[in-house]
Design goal:
single chain, 449 residues, mainly alpha, Clc chloride channel, 2 domains, disordered N terminus
Length: 449
């Protein structure tokens, strides 16, 4: 028994050490991804710190229109190159659903370990994902960097797991480590990264996995904090004395969030097939879609620049009650349309940031109504903007707990996090009952791997 315990201790120590190394490497990779996107945004739009909206207002309209088109040509070239190198059959960026698929199929039906390179989780896949995300988001594609980040993080950790000849269970744990470090690095949120890996990627909670994933998540977040600082992404007002009536309104926002999340999941899942049919109809290869979509994104840049890129600047403005209810509703619809277009046209990016953006706008509209009913003004609008942000994004992703923690770690507000937990729980249950899962589950059922 003692030999068995010692052997387990040595094995677990290797996993923990690998998790630490992976967390550091993923943190560096995410810092590089973030810096590369910033650099492209600065060259193209003159934007600093992802503030594309402010930058576009200072640009000549022709430049604002052409940058997404130029970015589209770069994305097309990368997709074409990926096909030539045999990276994947249907040209698209790697994402969270690839990581979930790999976790589920590490062990085949005959009990053999399946190489991750056969499931779009090779180093080549990771490099292509990195470059596609930089070219797409840097040129204004309406998407998020979290999906590509999780894929890149899992590719790095999976590579180490295979090199160290880990067991299938240990490989799954390392995939979770890469995903956790990526989310923690992207949002500066180590607790959310830990729970996201368990809730979305692994789909379970195992005591033996918690330690290594925690190590990876914390180390990844510390790397990005050392490079970019530890300031919260959004700075909300003080909600320490939020009226009780605010919490009475959260279930109603949960119902609205569920309806919006259902629309979003269906749109995001069907978008690639619609894009493929359009390409087939006009007789062009699928990898040639991005420049065509870039023209439309350029029009969005002129009309509603708030929807370009990850949209954090506009999200922060909505939290600060800088938009009217009518304009926030327009921005929510515009963001949904722009993100669906980018996904269908094979631009690189995820849906996490877009879900946060749309959730903030819908929550802001609800908050404006509550402000009129209760007389609490900007406090109500700001409060429900944050609640909507968490409720809709959590329901879309199928990750209510980790999304609640992301809101908490992004804002530092306990009161809004408690309200998010109520709304997102209701919304997630309704989405699960209606669609059978969040966006990643639906993508796994429709994708051809």
């Amino acid at each position: 028994m003692s030999r068995y315990s010692r052997r387990n201790l040595v094995s677990e120590s290797k996993v923990w050490l690998a998790a630490l190394i992976c967390g550091i490497l993923v943190g560096l990779a995410m810092s590089g991804l973030r810096a590369a996107i910033f650099s492209v945004e600065f060259v193209g739009f003159g934007a600093q710190d992802e503030r594309i909206t402010s930058a576009i207002t200072q640009l000549h309209p022709l430049r604002a229109l052409l940058i997404p088109v130029i970015g589209g040509f770069v994305v097309s070239f990368l997709l074409w190159l990926g096909l030539k190198l045999g990276i994947r059959g249907d040209p698209r960026i790697g994402g969270i659903r690839d990581v979930i698929y790999a976790r589920r199929h590490v062990l085949d039906r005959r009990g053999r370990t399946t190489p991750l390179v056969s499931m779009h989780m090779s180093i080549k896949d990771g490099i292509q994902t990195f470059l596609l995300a930089v070219a797409s988001l840097g040129s204004g594609a309406s998407a998020g960097r979290e999906g590509p980040a999780v894929h890149i993080g899992a590719v790095l950790s999976g590579f180490f797991a295979h090199k160290l000849k880990f067991t299938p269970a240990q490989i799954r744990a390392l995939l979770g480590c890469g995903a956790a470090a990526a989310v923690a690095s992207s949002f500066n949120a180590p607790l959310a990264g830990l729970l996201f890996a368990h809730e979305v990627v692994l789909g379970r909670y195992r005591t033996s996995d918690i330690g290594p994933i925690a190590v990876a998540s914390v180390s990844g977040a510390l790397i990005t904090r050392a490079i970019f600082g530890d300031n919260a992404v959004f700075t909300p007002p003080d909600f320490s004395h939020a009226p009780v009536i605010f919490f009475l309104g959260t279930p109603f926002l949960g119902l609205i969030a569920a309806g919006m999340a259902i629309v979003m999941v269906r749109a995001f899942v069907v978008a690639p097939a619609v894009g493929s049919r359009f390409a087939d109809k006009i007789r062009i290869p699928h990898w040639m879609l991005p420049p065509l979509a870039g023209v439309v994104i350029g029009v969005f840049a002129l009309a509603y620049p708030q929807v370009l890129g990850v949209g954090y600047e506009a999200t922060a403005t909505s939290i600060a009650t800088g938009y009217s209810a009518a304009f926030m509703l327009i921005l929510a619809i515009a963001k949904l349309a722009a993100t669906t277009l980018c996904i269908g046209a094979r631009f690189g990016g995820g849906v996490f940031s877009s879900s946060i953006f749309i959730g903030a706008m819908i929550g802001g509209v609800f908050g404006a109504i509550m402000a009129a009913l209760t007389g609490h003004g900007d406090l109500a609008q700001s409060f429900f903007t944050l609640v909507g942000m968490g409720a809709i994004s959590g329901a879309v992703l199928g990750a209510p707990i980790s999304t609640t923690l992301i809101v908490f770690e992004l804002t530092g507000s306990y009161e809004t996090s408690a309200a998010v937990l109520i709304s997102v729980s209701m919304a997630t249950v309704i989405v699960q009952a209606t669609l059978g899962g969040g966006v990643f589950e639906k993508q796994l059922r429709t994708d051809r791997f």
